[in-house]
Known about the structure:
Elements: H1 5-22, E1 37-38, E2 46-53, E3 61-66, E4 72-85, E5 88-96, E6 105-110, E7 124-131, E8 140-144, E9 178-179
Antiparallel strand pairs: 1-9, 2-4, 2-8, 3-4, 4-5, 6-7, 7-8
Amino acid sequence: MTASPYEAAVLDFRRRKDEHFAAGRGPVNPAAFAGLSYFPPDEAWAFTVLLEPLPQDDAGAEWTLETNTGETRTMARIGAAHLPLPGGERSLLVFAPLGEERPERVFIPFRDATSGDTTYGAGRYLDAPLDRQLGGDGALVRVDFNLAYHPYCAYGDGWTCPLPPRENWLPDSVTAGERLS
């Protein structure tokens, strides 16, 4: 069966990530690297939604994320994405680096019902593009769980990784993106 253009794009993204890791530019030993494991691409896990901005007086509010090493990372909380997941509408907080007024991409750390079972226990990450075609401060965010990935700390010690805040713990199983072998 021929892959759809969407599936082909996801598979190409994954191939390039595997090549990157195999070349020693990732958190794994390239000599022992046989490729990452993924759920099959499924466009039903890709959403383009309106980024709900924070109220004006909270815009760019600092948010402290805990890490796996006990340190903290401070980011700007720029809004929320409301997603029509199979178990019902869920919301995820959306972050950007501090001081970045109009980011092109945002950071969405999350946990779900697969965490600790078929995916890394501490959660996964999404780097989601923003589309500012709406004008003003409005933006669409592309939340594609097929591109969800494990943080570097999933592969070994020595990495400090932000943990998803409790607000980004989904009760649903997100069977898309990177998974454990």
